[in-house]
Each structure stands twice: as structure tokens, then as C-alpha cells.
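Give me the fold.
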Amino acid sequence: MKATTKRPVGRPRDDERTAARQEEILKTATAVFAVYGYRNTDVQVIADMAGIGKGTVYRYFPTKQDLFFAAVDRGLQRLEKQVLSDRADVADPIEKMMASVRSFFKFFEENSELVELFVQERSEFKDRPKPSYYVYKGKNVEPWHEIFRQLMKEGRVREMDADSVFDFLMDAMYGTIFMHYFARREKPLSERTEDVLKILFTGVLTEAEQRRHSN
């Protein structure tokens, strides 16, 4: 009896190659959007700089808008990955919070083009229900709440509304990267981190003044 063999359906998908190609496109797109702006960016320029055809870009990202939002999402995913990695081996909850803040500022010092994309997103897509950064912020609410609850339970921080603390902390961090970016300050963002941490976690009042204003 003659043995039969299955005919191959086609070339198996190379997931690693696909991921690498997408990464290269998004990395290039981030740089081009940051320099030229969303409205003035031609996808052909991105394709040329990535060394691929324009059709290849559209095969991965059907529209320029899809490409832009994918570039923003890539940046936020990288931010989240770096923060989680930098605080992974930190056990103490306060030190974990501080490690997160340091990692956050370090990331934006090295990836300031993402701040530019945040600006463009707000300018070009005002009808979006929620900017990408605030979607990222919402995803990270619960881990921070867990840290606050643990610290309050241990008596290491005052009893406060966790939502208010989280909002203040994230707004302060977000505002700092924007002001640093717009002002083009010479002092590196990483060098301002300790000043920010000191004010956020210990305040500016002396212990005597804190007691006086708490009454």
C-alpha cells in the first residue's frame, strides 16, 4: 500500500520575525512622529527609514492613525515593563514606590519622544474618550492601592483616601515630565528625582509645623 503524505498548507508564520518587524516599524515611527508631528508625517518616510516598502507598513498597520496609536502603546508598554522590572526585587513597600518613581523618570529621560507623542495625541485626537496615558494610569491603580493599604495597615503612612493619593502622585509625576520637556531644562530629569521624592514623601513643613496645621 502506497504511503500518503500531507501536503504542506503553506509556510508557517514566523512570529519572531513578525514581532521584530513590527518593533522596527514602531521604533522608527515614534522617532519620525516626534520630529515631524502626526499631521506632517508621511508613512513613506517611515518606510524608507525602516528600510521596507510602504505597503509593508500598511500590512501591519492599516492606517497612519493605527500606526500612531500603536507607537504610543508601545512606549507605554515599555514604560510599564521597565518600572515592573526595576522594582521587582524591592520588598519594602515605601522603597518599592520610590523605585517606581525613579524608574518612571529615568524612562522619560531616555525616551522624551514619547512625551511629544502625548502632546500630539491630545492635539490631534481631542475626541478620544481618554488619552492613552490615562488608560495606562487606570491599569496601574490596583497595585498602588495595595501598597497604600499595606502601609496604612502597618501604620507607616497616615490614613488617607488611596484614590486621592494615587491621583496626586501620578499627576505630580506626569506634570514633572511635561514641564521638564517643555522648559528644556539643563538639569537631567534623573537628577530632579530625589527632590521630587523628598517633597512627595516628606513634604516641606517641619514636624512642628505639621503638628500645628493638623490641629
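Residues 64-87 form the longest helix (24 residues).
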